[in-house]
Amino acid sequence: MFSRALFQSRQSLLQRQQPLKIAVRTLRNFKQEDQPRLRINTVVPNFDAETTKGKINFHDYLGDSWGVFFSHPADFTPVCTTELGAFSKLKPEFDKRGVKLIGLSAEDVESHKKWIKDIEEVNGLNKFEFPIIADVDKEIAFLYDMVDEEGFKQLGKAPVATIRSVFIIDPSKKLRISFTYPPSVGRNTSEVLRVIDALQKADAKGVVTPINWQEGEDVIIPPTVSDADASKKFGDYKTVKPYLRYTKA
């Protein structure tokens, strides 16, 4: 059973952008000041955990891949059952993009394995492929701030459900996008895929994407690129405003 998380101090996150030294907490010390700041472009905290696919080290599991790490309030919950099934069905699309999926629910591995049978049945899956982390002690939920305000007050004191958190992590282990939903609202798998496409396009081409952008649509040249450099790099482009220039992806 997983009982200890590895977490990072605020100073190292800001100064070094590298995984921090191990610090061991007990369940009696869930203090807000001990939580890492999960800002965009910070290296995400590392941890060891038991999962439905065996014990993992989170950073080692991600390796050189992108990652989508998402939490669920509890096992055998209706919305989560539909979500995990939807992500599993889309796993081939995530694979094409070099993205590893991993879920978390604040119950144990045996409960997760029983729940997976329901997920497969409800969603018509032959096999559920990616791991689900066990987080009975809420150590990882604390590390990634996966609880709501009232739940945080009860950490270490009473049963607490996580909220629907999503973390999109790049191959350098940096947080690129995060979403937070209340337990009552299911997530949108298409949006997760869309923003991964946008991030990968931006990284590869040095562009930014407009609202509702989909793969194949025009992109925006960043204002930091001069007109002369834009012509050299992108060729033809359309100027709507001096700061708003569209080009082909």
From TrEMBL:
Keyword entries, A-Z: Antioxidant, Oxidoreductase, Peroxidase, Redox-active center
Domain of life: Eukaryota
Limits of the Thioredoxin domain: 38-201
Catalytic residues as annotated in Swiss-Prot or TrEMBL: 80
Keyword Oxidoreductase: yes
InterPro entries assigned to the protein according to its UniProt record, in alphabetical order: AhpC/TSA (IPR000866), Peroxiredoxin (IPR050217), Peroxiredoxin_AhpC-typ (IPR024706), Peroxiredoxin_C (IPR019479), PRX_1cys (IPR045020), Thioredoxin-like_sf (IPR036249), Thioredoxin_domain (IPR013766)
Pfam (any one): AhpC-TSA
GO CC term (a single one): mitochondrion
GO MF annotation: an example: thioredoxin peroxidase activity
Keyword Transport assigned: no
An annotated GO BP: cellular response to stress
Family: Belongs to the peroxiredoxin family. Prx6 subfamily.
Role, per record: Thiol-specific peroxidase that catalyzes the reduction of hydrogen peroxide and organic hydroperoxides to water and alcohols, respectively.
Name of the protein this chain belongs to: Thioredoxin domain-containing protein
Gene symbol of the encoding locus: TDEL0C01590
